[in-house]
């Protein structure tokens, strides 16, 4: 199994400040799903949804609006096939080399400042792994709640590794303990991170002593 990634960079010289426009194309030998996305200065602008055959805008609502050339979708579909063909050629040329792997580094943290009884979101970030993707399992007080969580697409880092995050809506209560466990082929066993009562006590300490 292998991943073949192409990076195309274009430097914008029409502005006083230089910008980096990157088109990232990726495919896997064991997965027909490919990746095609556009970035500007490290921020994703849009990506190809091959099932819907359309480009999905991902910039926040407050960013300047822009449109995507309709021809980009057909270009993304063509690039996917080129990527797969190049990958097959590369595997044969290298005599089916072993796959390089990098284990993910994962962290768990709340999206907003924690207040008891106030709805919030826990984020489990898996970063710097290769190849994609990862699997994430959530528990609350040792009970599996993974079905209540969401898992993002995987995104490329500048060093050709990837990151991916999972979110879980929750209402903080003293005594509750949450965990997220990340599975990846480079890990001998899932890597688990805990978020729970001790951090809640620290977070609400100023209110308790007012």
From TrEMBL:
Tell me, what is one Gene Ontology molecular-function annotation carried by this entry?
Answer: MHC class II protein complex binding
Which residue numbers delimit the Ig-like domain?
Answer: 98-184
UniProt membrane topology term: Single-pass type I membrane protein
For this protein, the record's InterPro entries field holds: Ig-like_dom, Ig-like_dom_sf, Ig-like_fold, Ig/MHC_CS, Ig_C1-set, MHC/Immunoglobulin, MHC_I/II-like_Ag-recog, MHC_II_a/b_N
Q: Which UniProt keywords apply?
A: Adaptive immunity, Disulfide bond, Glycoprotein, Immunity, Immunoglobulin domain, Membrane, MHC II, Transmembrane, Transmembrane helix
Kindly give the CDD domains that the UniProt entry links to this protein.
IgC1_MHC_II_alpha
Q: Does the keyword Hydrolase apply?
A: no
- In terms of domain of life, where is this protein from? Eukaryota
* GO CC list: late endosome membrane; lysosomal membrane; MHC class II protein complex
Q: Which GO terms describe its biological process?
A: adaptive immune response; antigen processing and presentation of exogenous peptide antigen via MHC class II; peptide antigen assembly with MHC class II protein complex; positive regulation of immune response; positive regulation of T cell activation
Q: Name its cellular compartments.
A: Membrane
User: Quick one: where is this thing mainly located?
Assistant: membrane
PROSITE patterns under this entry? Answer: IG_LIKE, IG_MHC
The residues that cross the membrane are none
Family, as annotated:
Belongs to the MHC class II family.
Official protein name in the record: Zgc:123107
């Amino acid at each position: 199994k292998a991943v073949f990634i192409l990076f195309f960079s274009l430097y914008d010289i029409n502005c006083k400040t230089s910008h980096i426009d990157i088109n990232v194309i990726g495919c896997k030998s064991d997965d027909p799903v490919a990746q095609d996305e556009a970035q500007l200065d490290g921020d994703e602008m849009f990506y190809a949804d091959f099932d819907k055959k359309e480009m999905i805008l991902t910039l926040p609502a407050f960013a300047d609006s822009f449109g995507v050339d309709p021809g980009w979708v057909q270009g993304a579909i063509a690039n996917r096939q080129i990527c797969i063909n190049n990958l097959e050629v590369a595997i044969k040329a290298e005599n089916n080399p072993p796959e390089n792997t990098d284990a993910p580094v994962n962290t768990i943290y709340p999206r907003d400042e924690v207040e008891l009884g106030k709805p919030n979101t826990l984020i489990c970030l898996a970063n710097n792994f290769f190849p994609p993707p990862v699997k994430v399992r959530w528990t609350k007080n040792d009970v599996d709640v993974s079905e209540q969580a969401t898992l993002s697409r995987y995104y490329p880092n500048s060093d050709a590794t990837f990151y991916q995050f999972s979110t879980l809506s929750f209402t903080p209560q003293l005594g509750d303990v949450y965990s997220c466990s990340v599975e990846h082929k480079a890990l001998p066993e899932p890597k688990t991170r805990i978020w729970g009562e001790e951090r809640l006590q620290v977070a609400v300490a100023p209110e308790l002593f007012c």
